[in-house]
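Per reviewer request, we include the raw input and output of the structure prediction for the construct analysed in the revised manuscript.
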Amino acid sequence: MRSALDYVAANAADLAYGLAFFMVCYLIARLLKVPPPVALAFAVLPMVVLYWLQNPNAPARLMAALT
């Protein structure tokens, strides 16, 4: 638990930007009258794409872990 709090403290600004980006995407989807589960998927998808762009080996490691 201590390491999680250390991570949050060290990366508070990045986490706040990520949360704000997530909320903006979610609220735009809700303004377009999209059901809540679809709005969550719409909000999570850009975050996943950004993660994969920053960590290009992540999909290969995920597939290796699943097999």
